[in-house]
Design a protein that fits this description.
The complex is a heterodimer.
Chain A (H helix, E strand, L loop, with lengths): L1 H9 L2 H18 L1 H4 L30 H37 L1 H16 L2 H10 L6 H9 L4 H14 L3 H8 L4 H37 L10 H10 L8 H29 L7
Helix pairs in contact in A: 2-4, 2-12, 4-5, 4-7, 4-8, 4-10, 4-11, 4-12, 5-8, 7-10, 8-10, 10-11, 10-12, 11-12
Chain B lengths: L1 H36 L4 H8 L8 H15 L5 H13 L14 H5 L3 H28 L4 H13 L4 H15 L19 H38 L2 H9 L3 H37 L5 H10 L3 H29 L1 H4 L7
Helix pairs in contact in B: 1-13, 6-7, 6-9, 6-11, 7-9, 8-9, 8-11, 9-11, 11-12, 11-13, 12-13
Classes of the chains: A mainly alpha, B mainly alpha.
């Protein structure tokens, strides 16, 4: 069953391109710091040196090794992205499922909360919250972003479950005497699984981009190197106007490679699994 | 007939207005609660930190402290602080800036707001129009090379943060090629006026930040519209119209009208993150907008100013939301003519 399900994915050129880029970047983040074990915070050598043999990506104003920073940055940014995705997915699923199953007042209250959080500009609120915290760990940044980004997902899950419960096969299962639990496991969860997985991927994107935004405005993690903090320091030190391309181009390329490869993967999955989008 | 049509229209707008005002109140309440709820009470910290901000004038220091104590009213009970906070907001009093003491926060921010609007509104609207057009064309010509080019490039471009694209544009067009200015909204030394030379100078500085927002924002709209078009082309009414023998262009006109509605809603929901991106883009370009003053206030820990900026920005977003709702109600015949439920 699994191979029948996933084989078409590997025939989709988009999926192959996306997953290849994604795996390369992830490996850079996971294995990179081990293969290139330099301290990202150390004063490695001559400041603002362009890429050379010794420093493959050059150094920054403080003589920091930018390749070491980039590899560790990928790791931390991915870490933040995954935590954000876990938090938003959990909240979104809980709210969406409760709304759909309970209905009535519970549904109305939960949806009112969802709509309010959806309308309040989350990046502004994240900036405001972060501005009041003196110490911001990677986890705190992820928490701030995570608790603000779930609403659209909760709404989508609720809508999908609502339309599912009117389907004939669900109705038949009920007639067959399925309890709530069995109904959820056999009929409902498989139906929202793909969508949830795709949303999880998009939440990772949101987390990575959100961290970069917070960092650039000076409110990123106070400890540790992320892709955002590299860009932040490049901006503070005027790397762009002084032509230090090796400082600000690689982190941006990695952010775009990472997030767009994830987006390409979800688009490919949509094309393969969504009958409406399947090529005719 | 007109009267009959006006009622549901107003009812819809009233409902939206009520929701937005309510949400705005919640947002303001969050702005009020946050500094008081976070462990360690940041407000008390600021008050003590003012002493170290580096003013050598003890008399002014005590004045700043007195003003702040009064405005925050920390000695009063919480509900009284809240009532105070809200009443002062309604009077347009956002407190006194710490860093620019004794200037009022609103006076500090006011000159920066027009620049942000000037950058954000045209860029967002033009990106929306171009993105939707590209997406609609791609969806309509699904599977052709046009579709592939639009989709594949959008998938990448939509993920480029505005500000990083801004950095690239500065590096290529200002630093290397030297065709465009590398920062600011107008040349240094020029005094803002309504003269032709000033306007040309502003437009010259406008191109790069404008392009970085437009280009980076197009992709997302194109992807969304393309999917909507593909879904609509599968809908029963489209199949019916095609089987009736309607021309493709006529069918497409109906489809386009239908996808316009969710994309208008999308525009409203996207405003917040678009603004967030624009604020950081301003920072990259040293553009004298709200992003610049926000960054200044964050780095000087001028919380009165920070609060005021957020109260104003969120208000601006909700106003824009309401304008979008208004347009939605006009575009959607179900609301305009009072048929069906609308949203």
């Amino acid at each position: 069953m699994w191979s029948a399900m996933f084989r078409p994915l590997f025939k989709n050129p988009k999926f192959i391109v996306g997953i290849t880029i994604f795996i390369i970047v992830v490996l850079m983040g996971l294995v990179g710091p081990i293969l290139y074990p330099k301290d990202p915070n150390a004063f490695a050598g001559i400041p603002e040196r362009p890429p050379c043999k010794e420093y493959p990506l050059g150094t920054d104003t403080y003589g920091g090794d930018l390749l070491a920073k980039l590899l560790n940055g990928i790791r931390s940014s991915l870490y933040i992205g995954v935590i954000v995705a876990l938090i938003s997915m959990t909240i979104g699923l809980l709210v969406g499922i409760f709304s759909a199953i309970k209905g009535g007042v519970v549904d109305e209250i939960l949806m009112a909360i969802t709509n309010v959080v959806l309308t309040i500009p989350s990046i502004l609120l994240a900036i405001l919250i972060a501005s009041y915290l003196n110490v911001r760990s990677l986890e705190v940044i992820a928490l701030i972003l995570g608790v603000l980004s779930w609403p659209w997902f909760a709404r989508a899950i609720r809508a999908q479950l609502m339309s599912l419960s009117n389907r004939e096969y669900v109705y038949l299962s009920r007639l067959a005497g399925y309890g709530d639990f069995r109904l959820a496991i056999e009929d409902l969860i498989p139906a929202i699984a793909t969508y949830t997985f795709m949303s999880f991927i998009l939440f990772i994107n949101g987390g990575i981009l959100g961290e970069a935004s917070l960092s650039l405005i000076g409110l990123g993690p106070t400890k540790g190197v992320t892709l955002g903090t590299i860009l932040q320091w490049a901006t503070l030190m005027e790397a762009v106007r002084r032509g230090l391309w090796w400082w600000f181009i690689p982190p941006g390329v990695v952010i775009v490679a990472l997030t767009s490869s994830l987006l390409i993967i979800t688009t490919a999955m949509d094309e393969v699994f969504n009958p409406k989008l399947r090529e005719r | 007939m007109r009267d009959h049509a006006l009622k549901p229209f107003l009812k819809y707008l009233g409902r939206r207005l009520f929701f937005l005002v309510l949400t705005y109140f919640i947002a303001i309440t969050i702005i009020f609660i946050l500094p008081r709820a976070i462990p360690g009470n940041p407000l008390a910290q600021i008050l003590s930190r003012i002493a170290t901000v580096g003013s050598a004038n003890p008399e002014m220091l005590s004045n700043v402290q007195k003003t702040l104590m009064e405005e925050f009213g920390l000695s009063k009970p919480l509900y009284a602080q809240y009532v105070d906070f809200i009443t002062r907001l309604f009077k347009g009093d956002f407190g006194t800036s710490i860093h620019y003491y004794p200037k009022k926060a609103l006076d500090v921010i006011a000159p920066y707001i027009p620049w942000t609007l000037f950058l954000l509104i045209p860029a967002t609207l033009i990106a929306w129009i171009i993105g939707n057009t590209l997406g609609a064309v791609a969806g309509n010509k699904r599977g052709t090379w046009v579709d592939n080019v639009v989709l594949n490039s959008s998938l990448v471009v939509s993920q480029i943060p505005y500000y990083w694209l801004g950095m690239l544009l500065i590096y290529v067009f200002a630093v290397n090629l030297g065709i465009f200015p590398n920062q600011g909204a107008y040349s240094q030394g020029i005094i803002p006026s309504f003269s032709l030379s000033f306007i040309l100078d502003v437009l010259y500085h406008y191109i790069l930040p404008f392009l970085s927002i437009v280009i980076a924002a197009i992709g997302g709209w194109a992807i969304g519209t393309r999917l909507l078009v593909i879904n609509e082309l599968d809908a029963d009414y489209t199949i019916f119209a095609v089987n009736l023998g309607m021309r493709d262009s006529t069918v497409f006109k109906y489809v386009f009208r239908n996808i316009l509605l969710p994309q208008i809603t999308g525009l409203a929901l996207n405003l917040g993150s678009a603004l967030g991106g624009a604020l950081i883009t301003e920072l990259i370009f040293n553009y004298p907008g709200t992003g610049y003053i926000l960054f200044r206030s964050l780095s000087t820990l001028d919380y009165q100013l920070i609060q005021a900026i957020f109260v104003i920005l969120i208000l601006a977003i909700y106003l824009a939301n309401f304008i979008v709702d208004f347009i939605y109600a006009i575009v959607d015949p179900r609301i305009r003519l009072g048929q069906g439920e609308g949203s």
